[in-house]
Structures are given as structure tokens and as C-alpha cells.
Design goal:
13 strands; single chain; disordered C terminus; alpha/beta
């Protein structure tokens, strides 16, 4: 791995599914020792979707560079073990529903009171309090409540979900950023922090700059722009599709020269960038109707030569074969001791010319239980509760 920027930082994760585990994995990518506490049945994300030998790809992407300890937090003796782990750690991350950690004895007020230097971070669906705070939330609920599904509505006006876990994956790096900021402040002041992040809040923040542009200014004198949902710059070609954005004046003039459309050059709606952005639906429609006489590859060569932003529209299976993707080196092949060989992305940020990938394989449930207990000087789970693990 590259230089371990967070070497020496110990993170306790009490989380499942994607949001908090991915945030903790990002700290693990940077060298933190992330200890994932799992119930005997394990994180439900382990078997969701495409999987092999009990490891799903979704789980593997969110849980590399971690160790796993199996603890039943409903058992007081094993709660005591978790407490000892937290007492000797720097960060606690969880995404349990509001109130659950308090019932288990791991609420922020108690732990921060006993360990003032602890950084205590939680992700919830709707927030730690309020009318929906106790409701279960997954990505589709957040897409629905933030206007995202409405923004994707089809030609008949039916709202549609983005077909990827956008809310989960947007919120995870937000929490990782907040944790790094808290670690920096603690290094200076010695003070910990209590961090709360709602998926609802995270996606509203993410949606606002463009999708909410027509709902931001208050009062009179507002010049409204076109709704961002009117833009569709995916254009059919002779053999597929291309996406392009000739918004800037120089790009538009170059585009007109390539497509030989005098009708577009004469249309007053498209004469200026302001006019084109103000007539997004007509503008994108004009582009869509101009690309069908050449292949995607031909158009990409012509448009790139004219300095017009463009890209091919790949199928999911074609992404990894793109020359720029290969050049960037974002993908790595990993040999897992149980799940076998798989491919996945390394950390997207390059530090001093080096990427961080998988330096510790995705753990099996409780794989490191004995190892961790020994490190912390804790007697075995069986010795504490009179039974065997």
C-alpha cells in the first residue's frame, strides 16, 4: 500500500450494509486499523446480490482493509468486551437506528462523557430525532424524499429511481471527510467529537446546486433557468450512443461546423450560451438529432479533435476495457482466500503518485476475534459468559 496516512488510528465499526461500512473502509484504505464488530449471523450485506462462498461484491467493496470480531451485543458479557474495545480506540462508527446504541449502553453521551477524546460518528436515514427518525430507511426512500426520483421522471411523467445506490454512496465519503477533519482537530486540541449525518441531509446537500436552482432564491426579481431535468445529452449514433456537451460558445461553433446544420445556426434560441442553457430541452433535442450518420467512435474522434466534450456511452460490461480506465489504474485484481479472484476499484484519490488498494483482505465473520482479544488483553468470549464461541 501507499504511505499509511492514518496508521495508528483505531476504528471500531458497529454497522451493516453500505453507508457507515464504506466510510470506515475509506479510513482503512488510508491505513487505519478498522475493527468490524459483527453479530453471529454477520452483516446482512454479505449475501446480497452477486456473491461467491458467502461474500457479495457489494460487501467486499465496503469491507476491505478491516478485521472482524464476532460479538453478540445482546449478551451483557459481550457488550462488556465491545466497551473495552471502544475504550482503547479513536473512532466509533455506527449506522444503527436512533436509540439502539443507547439501549445497548453505547450512546454518544455516555461514551463521550467517559472518553472525551473519542470521535463518535453515526449515520441515520432521516436524522437522530424528529417525526421520521425511528423509521427504517434505504436508498430508494431517500431518492424519493429528496426529489431525485422526480428529477428522473420518464416521458410519461412517472418518477424513476436512479439504478444505483446513489444516496448510500454519496453519504459515505461525507462521513469519511468528517472523520478525517475530526481526527485533525483532535491531533491539535485533544478533543473528540460527536458526528451525526443523516442520509436525507446528505442527499439534499448533493442535489441542491443544480436540481434545486429554481427553488432557492426568495422574493421577487428572479430570472428562472430551465429545469435541469430537461437536459438529455445522450444522442443516438449509427451504432450506439454518445454523450456530448457543446455548451460553451467555441464548442457550439465547432459543433455546428461538424454537423452541417444551418437550421441550428440560424435558430435564435441557440445563438448564445445563456439561450442554449435556457432552452435545454430544445437544445438537447437538436443535438440528439444530429449524430445518427456516423458511428460512436467516429464522432468521438471528430468531437475530441474539435475540443468538444464528449464520451461514448458504455454498457456496464464495457467500462473496464476503456483505455483511459486502464491507464488510470483504478482497478485491481484481488485473490481472496475464500471468495477467490475478483476485480474492484482501488481508492480513487492518488497520494504522492500512489494508489491504495486492498492491503488486508475482506474478513470472514469473526475471523479475527481471537487475535483482537489477545491484542486488547481481553479474556475469550467463552470465558466471560461461561460458554464457547
Amino acid at each position: 500500500m501507499s504511505e499509511a496516512y492514518l496508521k495508528g488510528v483505531r476504528v471500531i465499526e458497529m454497522a451493516s450494509w453500505h453507508t457507515a461500512p464504506m466510510a470506515a473502509a475509506m479510513l482503512g484504505d488510508l491505513g487505519a486499523d478498522v475493527i468490524k464488530i459483527e453479530a453471529p449471523q454477520g452483516d446482512e450485506y454479505r449475501v446480497g446480490g452477486t456473491s461467491r462462498a458467502g461474500f457479495s461484491i457489494g460487501f467486499m467493496m465496503a469491507n476491505r482493509n478491516k478485521r472482524s470480531i464476532m460479538l453478540d451485543l445482546k449478551d451483557p458479557a459481550q457488550q462488556a468486551i465491545a466497551y473495552q474495545l471502544i475504550a482503547k480506540s479513536d473512532v466509533l462508527v455506527h449506522n444503527l437506528r436512533p436509540g439502539t446504541m443507547e439501549r445497548l449502553g453505547f450512546g454518544a453521551d455516555r461514551l463521550r462523557g467517559e472518553f472525551p477524546a473519542l470521535i463518535y460518528a453515526s449515520i441515520s436515514g432521516y436524522g437522530p430525532s424528529g417525526p421520521r427518525s425511528a423509521d427504517r430507511a434505504f436508498d430508494p426512500m431517500i431518492q424519493g424524499m429528496t426529489g431525485m426520483a422526480h428529477l428522473q421522471k420518464n416521458a410519461e411523467g412517472r418518477p424513476q429511481l436512479i439504478k444505483t445506490l446513489v444516496a448510500d454512496k454519496v453519504v459515505s465519503p461525507m462521513l469519511a471527510q468528517a472523520l478525517c477533519a475530526a481526527l485533525y482537530r483532535r491531533a491539535i486540541t485533544g478533543k473528540g467529537a460527536t458526528i451525526e449525518l443523516a442520509m436525507l441531509d446528505g442527499l439534499i446537500w448533493w442535489m441542491w446546486p443544480d436540481a434545486m436552482a429554481n427553488h432557492s432564491f426568495r422574493g421577487e426579481g428572479v430570472s428562472l433557468g430551465a429545469d435541469i431535468s430537461e437536459a438529455d445529452f445522450v444522442a443516438p449514433t449509427l451504432d450506439g450512443h454518445i454523450v456530448l456537451a457543446p455548451h460553451m460558445q467555441s464548442a457550439w461553433q465547432a459543433f455546428l461546423a461538424l454537423v452541417e446544420r444551418p437550421d441550428l445556426a440560424a435558430d435564435p434560441r441557440f445563438a448564445t450560451m445563456r439561450g442554449r442553457i435556457g432552452n435545454l430541452r430544445a437544445f438537447s433535442g437538436a443535438i440528439q438529432g444530429s449524430m445518427t450518420d456516423k458511428t460512436t467512435a467516429e464522432w468521438c474522434r471528430l468531437l475530441a479533435a474539435a475540443d468538444i466534450p464528449c464520451a461514448p456511452v458504455y454498457s456496464i460490461g464495457e467500462v473496464a476495457d476503456d483505455p483511459q480506465v486502464a491507464w488510470n489504474g483504478i482497478l485491481e485484481d484481488v485473490d481472496h482466500p475464500v471468495a477467490g479472484s475478483y476485480r474492484g476499484p482501488m481508492a480513487p484519490v492518488v497520494y504522492d503518485g500512489t494508489r491504495t488498494g486492498t492491503w488486508r483482505h475482506v474478513p470472514s465473520i469473526g475471523e479475527h476475534t481471537d487475535e483482537i482479544l489477545r491484542e486488547f488483553g481481553i479474556v475469550s468470549v467463552g470465558d466471560q459468559n461461561g460458554s464457547h464461541r
